[in-house]
Design goal:
- This protein has 11 helices and 4 strands.
- α6 runs antiparallel to α9 and α6 packs antiparallel against α11.
- The mean pLDDT is 88.
- It folds into 2 domains: 354 residues, Outer membrane efflux proteins (OEP); 84 residues, Outer membrane efflux proteins (OEP) (Single Sheet), CATH 2.20.200.10.
- The protein is an alpha+beta fold and 476 residues long.
- Strands 1-2-3-4 form a 4-stranded antiparallel β-sheet, with no helix packed on it.
């Protein structure tokens, strides 16, 4: 007995020494250091990312659209199913390190050759009641069977933790999608309203040009204007009337883009276009750059994926170590059903233990281990890249908001001056103190300036939304 124990210990030690020859690989620790402030002159402890999107947006019709998008967007619903599958994977992994118990029953019929060892034994063997061995021989059995892999190296438990981290990462992926979805719906909504205002501005300008055309025709009757002036005004009116249909097409496309985001077929979008030029973009509090690590779902997703990759190395490493398993069975077995419940004669049981470790040709598990290490390094780089990208997005939008505000102020003054110049030019033209080309040029510049002003307002609203998204707002 002692010799057998010694042999067993020697075998286990040999297996352990073989497991020690694991390739040495280097992992990577992610660098998460960020500047202390977004703006070195201003410290903001408050963060607008903490504001729920329902409290962030003021337009009630936009709120309805965003709510419908979150509930019905097809991509969000697809991700929800992936999250469900990830949760099921966690449950499956949990069951792997617990004992498996199953119930089994079977029946078979067989005959062995007479001139074999079993055949010779059966030929000379009598059983109860003086009967010879049954020919052919039946076998009936049923019972409980169990198998259990002992999780000595925590391989199965670590695999469960990996699955759980991947499940949490899938939730963060869904949150990041919602963040982008909210921003995309809001940006499309403001763009649609801007096109509405562009269309109103164009119509007002067409009326001004039509009035100028009428004046030119009257002046032609008194020989104070030529037919060339009339034709040029008519051409300008037709040019702007043709632009109206291009803007209407933009309206249709933007409405359909919003409908797609809402997961429904094309239909009119309810919106409030009036007062758009008077709307003020919200003042966004950026907080501290370090808060991006908690607020941005994509950063949290990358962090969880990195943690899963770290732990997955331990799972792959455990493949080099011996695995221990126990198998057991308990039930009844007999060649005739009437003997099946005879105890203890028909009682059967078994108990076995296995130790298995890879010795020769470990290429497969070595490759898995190296891949796990490479994925960890990849995940670390991706985590760093996600953090850098997040900080850059915030910095870009902060600069964008500042420059758009300055641009809008100057554009407002330009539009005011050009609007006055249109009135002055009309008066001068009526009194024959200005040429028709001056009126055409002035009206064209006024139209373009007002159009650019509307576009700048739309960019201001989008910059507000994009900064809110860049800070990590919009998913809760």
């Amino acid at each position: 007995m002692m010799n057998k124990m010694h042999y067993g210990l020697i075998l286990i030690m040999a297996l352990m020494m073989q497991a020690c020859s694991i390739p040495l690989l280097n992992t990577k620790k992610a660098e998460t250091k960020l500047p202390e402030h977004f703006n070195q002159q201003v410290r903001e402890d408050e963060n607008s990312a903490d504001i729920n999107w329902k409290d962030f947006f003021d337009d009630p019709q936009l709120l309805v659209l965003v709510d419908q998008a979150i509930a019905n967007n097809k991509e969000v619903n697809i991700l929800m199913q992936r999250i469900s599958m990830a949760a099921n994977e966690v449950e499956a992994r949990k069951g792997e390190y617990k004992p498996f118990v199953s119930f089994g029953a079977g029946a078979e019929l067989g005959k062995v050759g007479l001139y074999t060892r079993n055949g010779a034994v059966e030929e000379n063997l009598d059983i109860k009641e003086g009967k010879s061995f049954p020919d052919p021989l039946a076998n009936y059995q049923f019972g409980l069977f169990s198998s259990w892999e002992l999780d000595v190296w925590k391989k199965l438990r670590n695999a469960t933790k990996v699955a759980n981290m991947e499940y949490l990462a899938s939730i963060e992926g869904k949150n990041f999608l919602v963040t982008n979805l909210v921003a995309e719906v809001a940006n499309s909504y403001y763009e649609l309203i801007a096109v509405d205002n562009q269309l109103d501005n164009l119509k007002q300008n067409i009326k001004i040009q039509q009035n100028a055309l009428g004046v030119t025709r009257e002046l032609q009757q008194y020989a104070r204007a030529t037919s060339l002036a009339v034709k040029r005004f008519e051409a300008e009116v037709k040019k702007n009337e043709s632009k109206e249909y291009l803007l209407r097409q933009q309206q249709i496309e933007l409405e359909n883009r919003i409908n797609f985001l809402l997961g429904r077929t094309p239909q009119p979008i309810q919106r409030s276009s009036t007062g758009f030029m008077d709307a003020q973009a919200k003042l966004i509090q950026t907080g501290l750059p370090s808060q991006l690590l908690q607020h941005r779902p994509d950063i949290r997703k990358a962090e969880l994926e990195l943690a899963a990759a770290d732990l997955n190395i331990q799972v792959a490493k455990a493949n080099f170590y011996p695995s221990f398993s126990i198998k057991a069975g308990l039930g009844f077995q007999a060649f005739n059903p009437k003997y099946l419940f005879s105890t203890p004669e028909s009682l059967m049981y078994s108990l076995a233990g296995d130790v298995v470790a890879p010795l020769v040709n470990r290429n497969a598990i070595t490759a898995v281990y190296k891949n796990a290490n490479a994925k960890q390094v990849q995940a670390a780089f991706e985590y760093e890249q996600t953090i850098i990208n997040a900080y850059g997005e915030v910095a870009n939008q902060l600069s964008n908001i500042d420059n758009l505000e300055k641009n809008y102020q100057l554009k407002t003054k330009q539009v005011g001056v050009l609007t006055e110049s249109v009135e002055v030019a009309n008066q001068l033209f009526k009194s024959a103190r200005a040429e028709y080309l001056e009126i055409l040029l002035t009206q064209r510049e006024a139209l373009e300036a007002k159009s650019e002003l509307i576009e700048t307002k739309q960019k201001q609203m989008s910059a507000m939304v994009n900064l809110y998204r860049a800070l990590g707002g919009g998913w809760h």
